[in-house]
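It is worth pausing here to work through a concrete case rather than discussing structure prediction in the abstract. The textbook approach is simple: state the sequence, then state the predicted structure, then interpret. We follow exactly that order.
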Amino acid sequence: MEFSVANPILEVTHLTTEFQVEAGVARAVDGISFHLEEGETLGLVGESGSGKSVTALSLIRLVPDPPGRIVSPSRILLKGQDLLDLPEREMARLRGSEIAMIFQDPMTALDPVFTIGNQLCEVLRRHRRLTPSQARACAVELLRRVGIPAPEERMGSYPHELSGGMRQRVMIAMALSCEPEILIADEPTTALDVTVQAQILALINDLEAQSGMATLLITHDLSVVAETCDRVLVMYAGRIVEEADVFALFAAPRHPYTRGLLDSI
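Step two, the predicted structure:
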């Protein structure tokens, strides 16, 4: 199925990411191409080890090098600008301000020795050039926006003092703090119970509607895809084996791997 590209904010072509291993070279992402439109929620679905998270890290150039590297002829165009051509200083500026990521495990993504408030304020002061008082006020409002009760008090909390759902809300607040145009959500609800999972997904959808940002939602859960996504990419062994509108994917999956995923629900 061919998809028209109305307002592409992100265009990825021939993305290939390799890792040097003892036996040689392992290709985790193998020449994938896709696009993301403004205001769209694009699902990237596949089993563990299919290459989903490496794809996400490749998009923001956080693949550890060595042993990993993004190889030619990969291109990652953000509003027409190839991110692979940018110096690291400029790429660091774009992370957070233009394209942000919610990591799978907030306990490892958040620094355990700093309070939630310190970590949020650091991001705000670095990317938005705010004064300490302005950053604090903005951080409190962000925590309130993502549904954290008593946000002023929570500013002084450490990550281990929060529940899994609250930590994930903090990660979302941090990702949205600089009002990015693209949000990459890598398995944002994997470790959460069903009720909290629904709340987090609803929150992402609400924020998406308010700001018009585009979202790349990475998951292995097809029920999450059905609830939240406009289009779906199915990934297997480092390759995209199927791309479809979410309704078409569930009504008439074309690839045997996609049918197997659906049969496993």
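Step three, interpretation. Residues 194-211 form the longest helix (18 residues). The first strand starts at residue 8 and ends at 21.
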